[in-house]
User: What shape does this take?
Amino acid sequence: MIRMMEAGVAPVDLTAQFVTHYHSDHVVDLPDVVMTRWITQQLKKTGPLPIVTPNGPAQRFVERMLDAFDDDIHVRMEHTDSPAPRLKVTSFDAPTVSTEVWRSVDGLVRVSAIGVRHEPVRDAVAYRVDTPDGAVVISGDTRACVEVFELANGADLVVHEACRTAAMAKAISGTVFETIFSYHSDTIEVGRLAQQHGIPRLVLTHLIPAPQTDKDEKRFADDVRAGGFTGELTVGRDLMTFEIGR
Ligand SMILES: [Zn+2]
Ligand SMILES: [Zn+2]
Assistant: This one.
């Protein structure tokens, strides 16, 4: 929510919100987006926020997430004489092949999803956004898997999660991190798959372990290159922007 505002996008500006999976680091902010949109809608009427989510726990989270705000919603409604916040939830079964899950009213922007490999979390997806200017794929959380790169066929840019699993194997051996790292994307493997699928441009995000220095950051890039990737590569930082198309 804070990053979105810093990027110059207010909650009332959103056309739709897409959920990849239900891990808390991906949804803990969602009620904030919905509540802030609702409160600021007193100034700009935009209607319910469309939320697109895979079926299962993520969809259940979305449907229940405002429950804890009952009293707050009640007192604000009483005070401002406004209707309760409403969501327009579209949910879908995580598909095994690229499937369109949303389309803008003018038909120019299309969003497709594919199920990814984030077990024990099932019902996790990656998204692809197609626009007249080009296509961007967002992996969400997953092990390095071909599904993301099949979804990315012909895309201009892939934003992929990254975890230094192989490089840190010794250091994390026998710790809880061994388990956590096992359902994230080894950076070397991401480089290998991206190269194999001819991805022109790769941006790493959701960096594990979070880099503390430029040197740490460079290690992620070195891993991807070790995997054989020769395209354009950026280790992402918050609020970076990328241009695609003409
Ligand atoms: Zn995550
Ligand atoms: Zn996750």
In short: The mean pLDDT is 95.
